[in-house]
Amino acid sequence: MSEWWSIEVFDATELPARRWKDSYQDQLTEAAVAHGAMSWEWHEHRYGVVFEILFDSDQQWEAFRGLPAVRSALDGAPDPVNGLIIYRGRGGGAGPRKPRKPKPAPSASAMSRPLPAEERLLRVAGITAPEAPQAPEAPGVLEPAFAVGW
């Protein structure tokens, strides 16, 4: 499985990391390509530089890391004790290799929403309007005599 490796060099008071990169980038890139690097990238940040290398196996990385040219470049870092970090993975602000699982949003938005109510459909085709309700006749009430039938 292919793995990225990073060499991160930080600025020192007497020598910026960019000057270190200008001095050693050709020999580091050449050594990486000669020992099977599939890809490589240089990144400059305001605090230093990062050299990222993609190797197909850990054995290729170990062979690259043990080369005299690589060891001398790492020894030539502006601050080889406190200003040099070598680690597996992409460098700088690349983040983790695997994305984090999403967490629920804080407060009320973390609650589940209610399911929508079931829709009720009324089919009106072919239905006749009901007759108007008749008022019950009150006992002892007579029909008016002047009512004419329509």
Keywords:
150 residues, alpha+beta, 4-stranded antiparallel sheet, 3 helices, 23% helix, rod-shaped
Question: How does this model look, in words?
Answer:
The protein has 150 residues and is α+β, with helices and mostly antiparallel strands. Helices cover 23% and strands 18% of the residues. The protein contains three helices and four strands, in the order βαββααβ. Strands 2-3-1-4 form a four-stranded antiparallel sheet. A hairpin with a 3-residue loop joins β2 (39-44) and β3 (48-55).
Strand order of the largest sheet: 2-3-1-4
How far apart the termini lie comes to 96 Å
Q: Which parts are unreliable, with pLDDT below 50 for 5 consecutive residues or more? A: none
Overall, the morphology is rod-shaped
Largest sheet: 4 strands, antiparallel
Radius of gyration: 40 Å
Number of helices: 3
Structural class: alpha+beta
